[in-house]
Design a protein that fits this description.
Helix content is about 70%, strand content about 0%. The chain contains nine helices and no strands. It is globular.
């Protein structure tokens, strides 16, 4: 697993690169092609499964995971997940209107497998929330299990493109926002610990 300082720096670079790609016509075109390749339908059953599982990056998933952790006696992990997920959701909602990127089904003739989401396309809020939860939960898990939340965040990122509501660069930005939110929530927890 990368060291925390490197994860933060890599997240900032990924976020900046994703934003820069929105300002370059050749990169926008590349993004469209990559996103179209990811969104190729793979059958009705796959569509249903991915459309349902993409909500692993929703605020409902934050509530569900935090509640489960709390109910099983892991209060610190529950708080970390709730704070990180909440920060990621807020960050994404604050950024979206600043960029106002149309979603693929709005800008192009693309399918949409889920209900119409609110807000603009960049960054992916679901991906940000999933990445933040992964960042917050991973330190509470044994090393062998840490790939599970990280893999889940990666799945959510790809799924948001597959269901037709984001471009690939939106998902990259969401991963970066989520990782940074997870780091910031850890800083907040340490500061709160010093104050008490």
């Amino acid at each position: 697993m990368p060291r925390p300082g490197r994860t933060g720096a890599a997240s900032v670079v990924a976020l900046a690169a994703s934003y820069a790609a929105l300002r370059s016509e050749p990169l926008i075109e590349l993004d469209r092609h990559v996103s179209a390749a990811i969104a190729v339908p793979r059958g009705h059953q796959a569509d249903l499964a991915v459309a349902a599982a993409t909500d692993l990056g929703s605020v409902f998933a934050v509530a569900g995971l935090s509640g489960t952790l709390l109910a099983t006696g892991r209060a610190r992990a529950a708080v970390d997940v709730a704070v990180a997920g909440g920060l990621a959701w807020i960050a994404a909602q604050v950024i979206k209107p600043l960029v106002e990127r149309p979603r693929p089904y709005q800008a192009e003739d693309r399918h949409r497998l889920v209900s119409e989401p609110a807000g603009s396309s960049w960054p992916s809020g679901h991906t940000a929330v999933a990445a933040a939860m992964a960042s917050a939960l991973s330190p509470h898990l044994p090393p062998a299990a840490r790939s599970i939340p990280i893999g889940t965040a990666a799945f959510v990122a790809v799924s948001r493109v597959y269901v037709g509501v984001h471009y690939a660069t939106d998902a990259v930005a969401g991963l970066a926002v989520g990782a940074l939110s997870g780091k910031f929530s850890g800083v907040l927890r340490r500061l709160a610990g010093r104050l008490t």
